[in-house]
Write a structure and sequence with these properties.
The chain is of the alpha+beta class. It is built from 4 helices and 7 strands, in the order H-H-E-E-H-E-E-E-E-H-E.
Length: 131
């Protein structure tokens, strides 16, 4: 269908395919994974293809799994000039009592599911403060 249109001088279908391909490439490079890797003992935000501690240590958002004592999910109400909305955080409680944010997103059901799954995977307690 797209190729027939291109032969007849209508390139809108071809341009659509190019736009989708370009958007997919941008998403691929910008998307960051939330990773908890028991094999090397670290968690991080970034590529899910890292396999060595030396590859993880240069990342900004990272930590050692052995320091995690609990998983916490919190709800924030965010007010901006354009809108108000709820945002949810998945945090790791560290041995020293500090809270390290691991991820945020807008889905209450999703963050609860992810928090419980990570806590079970790590064998630590799960706490939440969501209305």
């Amino acid at each position: 269908m797209f190729l027939v249109g291109a032969v007849n001088g209508d390139f809108s279908g071809v341009l659509l395919i190019i736009a989708i391909a370009f958007s997919s490439v941008i998403f691929w490079f910008k998307h960051k994974s939330a990773v908890v890797d028991k094999k090397i003992g670290w968690y991080w935000i970034g590529s899910n293809k890292l396999a060595k501690v030396s590859e993880v240590q240069h990342l900004k958002k990272k930590g050692q799994i052995s320091r995690i004592v609990a998983v916490q999910v919190l709800e924030d109400y965010v007010t901006t000039s354009d809108s108000d909305y709820y945002c949810y955080e998945l945090n790791f409680i560290i041995k020293n009592g500090m809270r390290r944010n691991f991820m945020r997103h807008g889905g209450r059901v999703d963050i609860r599911r992810d928090g419980k799954k990570v806590a079970k995977f790590l064998g630590v307690p799960y706490f939440e403060n969501i209305s």
